Amino acid sequence: MCFLRRLRLTARQFRLLQSALIGCAVLAAACSGCEGTDVRQNPDGTYRGTGDIVYKYETGEKARVDSYVDGKLKRSEWFRPDGKRAFLTKWTGKGDGFEYYLYPNGAPKKKYTMRDGVAHGPAWEYDKRGKVTSKSMFVDGAEKVEEET
């Protein structure tokens, strides 16, 4: 990441960029194929257009659907492999809501509180049966405290 040093970012800007890059990498790794409608990603990582982006499990079943209106993420739905909806977030403001990561069986793996599109607030990790295994706190995309439960 030496090229980032040349950008002379503040610590907050660096954490926001780091969170965005990690989020993109996780989404790219989480699905083998994605479909979209009239939504396109700009070179700076923002979106334009209105429609849905569908992320799929390796089996081809939909895993997540992100709905955009005029380039703003308005709603995200996460699905279990059997097609049943697992979670729903209606995004408010500039990206306030909950972000989920699921196990291949559709059970929750991680849940993050998001503010302005980055992790900010409590986050939880779960085992494959849905039991909370740890809780942590994020501030502007950076993890602050981790508690074992």
Question: How do the strands and helices of this protein lay out in sequence?
Answer:
Elements: H1 2-6, H2 11-30, E1 34-36, E2 40-41, E3 47-48, E4 51-56, E5 62-69, E6 72-79, E7 85-90, E8 97-102, E9 108-115, E10 118-126, E11 132-139, E12 142-148
| Largest beta sheet: strand ordering | 1-4-5-6-7
Following the backbone from N to C, one meets helices and strands in this order, namely HHEEEEEEEEEEEE
* Poorly predicted residue ranges: 24-34
Gyration radius over CA: 16 Å
Mass-distribution shape:
flat
Strand content: over 45%
Arithmetic mean of pLDDT = 81
Helix content: 10-25%
Biggest sheet descriptor: 5 strands, antiparallel
Structural class: alpha+beta
How many strands? 12
- Report the end-to-end length measured between terminal Cα atoms: 34 Å
Number of helices: 2
Defining key terms:
alpha+beta; 2 domains; 5-stranded antiparallel β-sheet; 12 strands
Q: Any overview of this molecule?
A:
The structure is a single chain. The chain has helices spanning 2-6, 11-30, and strands spanning 34-36, 40-41, 47-48, 51-56, 62-69, 72-79, 85-90, 97-102, 108-115, 118-126, 132-139, 142-148. The protein has 149 residues and is an alpha+beta fold. The protein folds into two domains: 33-84, no CATH class; 92-149, no CATH class. A hairpin with a 5-residue loop joins strand 6 and strand 7 (85-90). The radius of gyration is 16 Å and the shape is flat. The relative contact order is 0.11. Mean pLDDT is 81; it is low at 24-34.
